[in-house]
Design brief:
single chain; alpha/beta; Rossmann fold; 2 domains; elongated; binds cytidine-5'-monophosphate
Length: 400
């Protein structure tokens, strides 16, 4: 078994009773060819001796943030650079809270903050602590930043209680690690995604916009990244944290979005237009704030460029995916757009349904391509995004 051959894995261990299981995890990872170095928090050393991990990994175990013998006191930077994956198992409630807030008051937290590579955490704690809102919010924040959350498991706990919070078994964590290093379907491919609304200025303080939150596009960017793609996210104004390891190009208006898209479009293999681009913009932007004088005000509007159609008419062009947000005749309208905009695939959703579409966490899609169709039933946008990226990848690889 050499599925982890020459992978550098930094195993972080925090203070919890599950720390004893990490000795087995360390052994399993090494058996599959990984190089393992271990960083322990002072709390972890209360549960298991660093000597155990030194013997298993064949390397010195790192504990002290202020180790005078370390290379120019730069252990945290060296270790962060060395690792392909930082796997923290067990990850205690206290550690997750500190990690989510960017604390750096022990060596493991400092390494995590200095790391540009993926971090995976295996939560392990009492079920009540796990289910507490504070822990849940910390995990959500970490997930949004691209930290992989592996587990926890449910069942009987060391404290005698039953519920979610047990660390995943070493065999399961080792399987997740192997899966993490398997090349994704879109490895080596460049994917561009537009997201969010656009803002079309009326005067220095007012604009025309829409209710798009950008959630779908941001989840698609995360899912494409997790499939191995190099992702460029062209985003209108939203209140979302961009996924880590994604190139973010910001814009406000449709014209700015078009410019950002065109600046790197020749490098893209796949273009996914999930942005809710304003169809029209004010003909002129007033230099000064418009005064309320008359009873009515007429704003002449002009049509915005259709970004998706522009990209789909390039030659050569990327594989083009559009969205159709409809309030009537969903399939018919989506099929017309597929044809008129010369798309390879379109994802259609109802926007008059309160449970899906704009500005909510869930969605349901009808995915249509020339000669085929697949329904993705109502579920969180994060899961819909994974399934849509999977369909896009399969269609793209077929026609490539
Ligand atoms: O024609 P309609 O606006 O319904 O088409 C929706 C699709 O076209 C979406 O994928 C959207 O991102 C894209 N679009 C665009 N530029 C526009 C209008 C829509 O890229 N100006």
């Amino acid at each position: 078994m050499s599925e982890l051959l020459n992978k550098n894995i930094l195993l972080g261990i925090t203070g919890g009773i599950a720390a004893y299981k990490s000795a087995e995890l360390c052994r399993l990872l090494i058996r599959q060819g990984a190089h393992i170095k271990v960083v322990m928090t002072p709390g972890a050393c209360e549960f298991i001796q660093p000597l155990t991990f030194q013997a298993l990994s064949g390397h010195q175990v790192y504990v002290d943030l202020f180790d005078a013998g370390a290379n120019n006191a730069m252990d945290h930077i060296e270790l962060a650079r060395w690792s392909d994956l930082l796997l923290i198992a067990p990850a205690s409630a206290d550690f997750l809270a500190k990690l989510s807030q960017g604390y750096a008051d022990n060596l493991l937290l400092t390494v995590a903050l200095a790391s540009q590579n993926t971090i995976a955490v295996a939560p392990a704690m009492n079920q009540q602590m796990y289910q507490d809102q504070a822990t849940q919010q910390n995990l959500q924040l970490l997930n949004q930043r691209g930290v992989l959350i592996w587990g926890p498991d449910e069942g009987e706990q060391a404290c005698g209680e039953i519920g979610p919070g047990r660390m995943l078994e070493p065999e399961v964590l080792s399987r997740h690690t192997v899966d993490f290093f398997k090349p994704g379907q879109l490895t080596g491919k460049h994917v561009m995604i537009t997201a969010g609304p656009t803002r079309e200025a009326i005067d220095p303080v007012r604009f025309i916009s829409n209710r798009s939150s950008g959630k779908m596009g941001y989840e698609l960017a995360r899912a494409a990244r997790d499939s191995g793609a190099t992702v460029t996210l062209v985003s209108g104004p939203v209140c979302l944290q961009p996924p880590s390891q994604v190139n973010l190009l910001k814009c406000q208006s449709a014209e700015e979005m078009l410019n950002q898209v065109m600046s790197v479009i020749t490098e893209q293999d796949i273009f996914i237009a999930s942005a809710a681009v304003a169809d029209y913009r004010p003909h002129q932007i007033a230099d000064q704030k418009i005064k309320k004088t008359d009873e009515t005000l007429t704003l002449p509007l002009v049509k915005n460029p259709d970004i998706l159609s522009t990209v789909a008419h390039l030659y050569p062009r990327p594989f083009c995916v559009g969205f159709a947000a409809e309030t009537t005749d969903l399939e018919l309208n989506a099929r017309n757009k597929l044809e008129n905009k010369k798309l390879d695939l379109i994802a259609a959703n109802w926007v008059n349904d309160e449970k899906s579409g704009f500005d909510v966490d869930d969605n349901a899609l009808s995915v249509i391509w020339p000669g085929g169709m697949q329904e993705l039933p109502h579920q969180p946008k994060s899961l819909i995004a994974e399934q849509l990226i999977d369909i896009i990848a399969k269609r793209f690889l077929l026609v490539e």
